[in-house]
Amino acid sequence: MQKTEKRPGGRASPMTIEQRREMIATAAIPLFIEQGSSVTTKQLADHLGIAEGTIFRAYGDKDALIRAVVDVFFDHANDTLVPEISTAGLSIEERLHAVIRHARGRAKGMFAMLSLLDPGEARQYMKRRPSGGFEETAAQIFTADAAQLQIPPRKLGALIRLLVIAASAPQLGDGAALSDEELVDFALYGIAGRPRRSTADDGKKN
């Protein structure tokens, strides 16, 4: 089945090869994150509702598809983060929680994407990628809070990235036990700052 897009007036036109390639790679991302390289082109074709041959006409082979999936993931990882959080009227703690939740999902995807490549290729790939994207995104979200922060918003983004990577790296294992709330508390208050108020504390004041 060939995917089409609507022309003005309701008429459908076939997708260009570039549009089809991006559509396939984008749709493949969650499958590769959950199943790794064991995902088959048939599974992907069934997921998309297209013929398996359409995938091979777009990419030639599975290796080319995998590289396209990795590229699309890193190119668009932060696309929706700023609009979703900046326009929601959230407190600084709520925004930090949303950023950390997004970053943990992104970190899971990042490790899954890099696992699709050979170790040497993954290292070279990351060296070629432009750095600082997440920090810039976080800076946009927390710029209005600069007067309340002990560090500049961009450095806050770098701190969040380091915390989340350490808590999410499969090689470290124990990091999975850290909750989003614990990471938020650490980012906001450090190890000796104001603790999160507990329900028990609320009861004592009433």
UniProtKB/TrEMBL annotation:
The keyword Transcription regulation applies. Keywords: DNA-binding, Transcription, Transcription regulation. The keyword Transcription regulation applies. Coiled coil: none annotated. Residues 40-59 bind DNA. Gene3D superfamilies: Tetracycline Repressor, domain 2. Residues 18-77 form the HTH tetR-type domain. SUPFAM superfamilies: Homeodomain-like. GO terms for molecular function: DNA-binding transcription factor activity; transcription cis-regulatory region binding. It comes from the Bacteria. This is Transcriptional regulator, TetR family. It comes from Microbacterium esteraromaticum.
